[in-house]
Amino acid sequence: MAENTSKDNLPVSERVNNRSLRPNSSTFKEFMTQGWQAETPQASPLESSKYTPARLLKLSQAFPGERLVIPAGVAKVRNNDCDFRFRPDTTFAYYTGLGEDYEPGAVLVLDPQEQASSTGMLHQPILFVHARYDYHTPEFFRSASYGEYWTGARPGIAEFGVMTGLESRDVRELASLLAKNVGSEAHDVKLRVVKEADPQVTELVESIRVHAGFTDHATNQAADDELHQFAAEARMFKDEWEISEMDSAIHATRHGFDNILRHLDKAEGKENGERILEAAFDSISRIEGNDVGYGTIVASGDDAPTLHWMRNTHAVQSQDMLLIDAGIESKGLYTADITRTFPVSGKFSPVQRKLYEAVYKAQLAGFEAVHIGGTYSDIHHACMRSLCESLAEWGVLPVSVEEALSPEGQQHRRWHACGVAHHLGLDVHDCAEARFSEYQGGTFKPGMIFTIEPGLYFRRNDLLVPEEFRGIGIRIEDDVLITEDGPVWMSKKYLPSAPDDVEAWMAEQRKLAGQDVD
Ligand code: GLY
Ligand code: MN
Ligand code: MN
């Protein structure tokens, strides 16, 4: 049969190469392994490698005698053979200290040891990674995912060892290590995996467990969830390096907002003005950081009360208030989460200023309520009381402040349905797998970083508010660190938020962009 016809019998999923006539002769394959000058990637220890040993020690001591499996995950398919940019799983990034796009298919294993190390470690951490597929190997040309012909030189086993300070091995040795001595006798090893990260590794772990007699999937999954939960609760307390990553993410975010303000005149009156501003922010995220930490929200005018507005397809008009919720993720993968609301014209109208000042006041009240030993509900109640008082003063609240604040009331939540604070770090909604008792019920301690983000959201068709409020949404969101001396605003030093300061910031950026300022 002619090759053209025989290839039609390939399954549809294998037809991606129909677009290319790949050379496949043994002569060609041999030819491709010769005549290249050797290149060795440079590697040096990452700053994070000074901090991961303390994180690993706590993890090790929490799970004595168990083998812990923490995969980086694999790239998600965008369509057929095109993937989304890879971002490692958060638990993997936390315990290896690897950021950027390191490393698809890698797996960190904490292998239990008979004897504790001198530092108290009960496990040997081992990082399994793909070897370099350089020109010596057939994969150099044949592997589109790891071959250096396609991907460029990437760190290999030795390089990842230097970068992370961890013992590193070839990922092809993973399966045999995972299965070693797994069983249900007292001296046997039990396995736990961060099961959300890499379906193939999760399947492998589960098949080893089932083979060893652990046949109850629900029990196995509950054990896995405990590992994930432990990691999320450990991440609530940021070390010095994490705090510096957060600081640089916030600083870069300031530059992203600056770029938005410099492009405001190019967006104003344009049909796709919100997209112009999104692009202005996101471009800085790739220049100064790894990426954006979440989809940038650019909500002008009556888009702002739509809390998850991310289509950013609408116009930006001079009379609008413009709500931007955006955060740059550092190269170490820590993200800022900042919202500012601007008058597009550069000057708040009297109504805009009145509403803005109410939100600003509520945020300050939330911050005043934060203290070591306090809880998230302190922030919530302080912000809600302040907002209720403003709504009552404007005659909008249909009941008294006390009645609205009671559990049976809550009428004010019509204009503020979302949460007012959350942990922040490697994930924008960080530590999500933590227990309720440790998250909402946990008390503030040094090292915690979280947002305070009150707002007021008046939908354009809300007949219960004055007409002049309709179609305005305002949020002010900042990032707070708890220190031994109490809470500090991490973001206010970089991004102004008092109304006069916002106007001055807008004028300054317009001037720097060479635009006329009245
Ligand atoms: N940007 C998501 C949030 O503020 O929670
Ligand atoms: Mn937030
Ligand atoms: Mn936000």
TrEMBL record:
<keyword id="KW-0378">Hydrolase</keyword>
<dbReference type="GO" id="GO:0005829">
    <property type="term" value="C:cytosol"/>
</dbReference>
<keyword id="KW-0031">Aminopeptidase</keyword>
<dbReference type="GO" id="GO:0030145">
    <property type="term" value="F:manganese ion binding"/>
</dbReference>
<protein>
    <recommendedName>
        <fullName>Xaa-Pro aminopeptidase</fullName>
        <ecNumber>3.4.11.9</ecNumber>
    </recommendedName>
</protein>
<dbReference type="InterPro" id="IPR007865">
    <property type="entry name" value="Aminopep_P_N"/>
</dbReference>
<keyword id="KW-0479">Metal-binding</keyword>
<feature type="region of interest" description="Disordered">
    <location>
        <begin position="1"/>
        <end position="24"/>
    </location>
</feature>
<dbReference type="InterPro" id="IPR029149">
    <property type="entry name" value="Creatin/AminoP/Spt16_N"/>
</dbReference>
<dbReference type="InterPro" id="IPR000994">
    <property type="entry name" value="Pept_M24"/>
</dbReference>
<keyword id="KW-0645">Protease</keyword>
<dbReference type="InterPro" id="IPR036005">
    <property type="entry name" value="Creatinase/aminopeptidase-like"/>
</dbReference>
<dbReference type="InterPro" id="IPR052433">
    <property type="entry name" value="X-Pro_dipept-like"/>
</dbReference>
<comment type="similarity">
    <text>Belongs to the peptidase M24B family.</text>
</comment>
<feature type="domain" description="Aminopeptidase P N-terminal">
    <location>
        <begin position="47"/>
        <end position="200"/>
    </location>
</feature>
<keyword id="KW-0464">Manganese</keyword>
<dbReference type="GO" id="GO:0070006">
    <property type="term" value="F:metalloaminopeptidase activity"/>
</dbReference>
<dbReference type="Pfam" id="PF00557">
    <property type="entry name" value="Peptidase_M24"/>
</dbReference>
<dbReference type="GO" id="GO:0006508">
    <property type="term" value="P:proteolysis"/>
</dbReference>
<dbReference type="Pfam" id="PF05195">
    <property type="entry name" value="AMP_N"/>
</dbReference>
